[in-house]
Amino acid sequence: MRVSSQQRREQLIEAALVVAKRDGVGAVSTRTVAAEAGATPGIVHYVFASMDDLLRAMIARMAERYIDTVTDVAVSGDHDVTSLLEQSSSHLWSSVESDPDGHLLTFEVAAHALRTAGFNDLAQWQYETYRMTARRVLERVAEVCEVEWTLPLDSLARMLVVINDGVVLSWLVDRDSEKAREVYAAFIREVASYARPLRETAG
């Protein structure tokens, strides 16, 4: 059966992710990706103009999955700022524990982008995406709970990204999930303290 260009592109991106998770971002090459995808190096060159393009597509896919995980906040029944933030954090943490190699790769690709000429913009875009996602979560929580944030959203979003990076990287080193959850819980309480009702109760 003939494989469309879009299907082949998807296969190669997923193959690049498999190689990068298993062997590191430095191992991603035309040969390794082709072998993982069951294709020829010529196919890789046909679909992607360069390895830079493939790496950018791979990092974009990682960012898309991060967005889907963090913004998946279900709103039903009673809810408050703390519970919604906990829900978003829980979804993210589940993805960390189920795919530690994938989250290790997020740090590796950022370092790779900063160290590789012509890729610095990719690291900036990666973290802008994280901050934008955190901001969307905060905006959604404020809307649902009818609160406003007493700190600028950009500052709060940056705080969320910075703390999450620290917790995840520390956990990748020591695998102490209990301590990681304790830090998240304390931080969520801190963030919730910056929320105030839009309409104060009269009286």
List keywords for this structure.
about 200 residues; mainly alpha; two-stranded antiparallel ribbon
Amount of helix: over 70%
- Taking all residues together, what is the mean pLDDT? 90
User: What share of residues are in beta strands?
Assistant: under 5%
Tell me the radius of gyration: 20 Å
Q: What is the element string, with H for helices and E for strands? A: HHHHHHHEHHE
- Report the principal-axis shape: elongated
> How are the strands of the biggest sheet laid out side by side?
1-2
Q: Could you state the oligomeric state of the chains shown? A: single chain
Count of helical stretches: 9
Q: How many strand segments? A: 2
Low-confidence stretches: none
Main beta sheet, described? 2 strands, antiparallel
Tell me the structural class: mainly alpha
Euclidean distance between termini CA atoms: 72 Å
